[in-house]
Amino acid sequence: MTKEKLHKEPKTKEKDQTPIIEIKDLHKTFGKDNKVLQGVNLTLNKGEDLVVLGRSGSGKSVTIKCIVGLIEPDKGEIKVFDENVLHIPKNELNAIRVRIGFLFQSGALYDSMSVRENLAFTLTKHQRDLSAEEIESQVMEALESVGLGDAVDKMPSELSGGMKKRIGLARTLILKPEIILYDEPTTGLDTITSREISELILDIKHKQKTSSIIITHDMACAKLTADRIIVLKDGVIHAEGTYEELEKDEDEWVRSFFE
């Protein structure tokens, strides 16, 4: 639904939902006049997969990077687990970050480390008192959750694009996050592999009870994963609704995403 029609009742009644992320009046300008975010208001509800659409440069990735502190906004409020993450001590922010998984477009694996070492490094960085047996068990559990237990001794250079995405996701899952932020999870993948990643996102949501924001240009991914979709335009939320609602929206610009 376009901005003028946001009062309509969403797919799931708001009274049954608990906000886990709340963003209010978020602004971010790069340089002198590149105004990327101009007052974004966004809520992610517990147990929800929220898809964010928008043209390149519309501020999709900037928004989720602000949530975890990778980018500092110029103005606004970001509450995660009911804490304003822009105004808390660094140690408290780090404690919240551990509860948030971030899947980068590239998978962001360390090229000089094996798959096992990539996952173990992330795990031991946050849980330093684990035994070797506990580390191995959790590494294998995370890999098996993405269907790649047999890739544990491979190097990133030996992996396909789809495998790198899965390993990156396994590395995110090893800390058992409550929220996962997906930045273009299917970019650069063929149609079949993209669908497999989308199905994996759904599987993780149901098995691990995660809440997620999914940044994507892939409408097949959006259709499969989204409980709700928001569309960014000119630095603000221009439309919001289910896939089916937005596909039939009166706004021609919104409908153009679905053609």
From TrEMBL:
Domain ABC transporter span(s) in chain numbering: 21-259
PROSITE patterns reported for this sequence: ABC_TRANSPORTER_1 (PS00211), ABC_TRANSPORTER_2 (PS50893)
Keywords, sorted A to Z: ATP-binding, Nucleotide-binding, Transport
Molecular functions (GO terms): ATP binding; ATP hydrolysis activity
One family name in Pfam for this protein: ABC_tran
Domain of life: Bacteria
Cited InterPro entries: AAA+_ATPase, ABC_transporter-like_ATP-bd, ABC_transporter-like_CS, P-loop_NTPase
Keyword DNA-binding belongs to the record: no
UniProt keyword annotation of Nucleotide-binding present: yes
Name of the protein: ABC transporter ATP-binding protein
Originating species: Flavobacterium fluviale
Lineage: Bacteria, Pseudomonadati, Bacteroidota, Flavobacteriia, Flavobacteriales
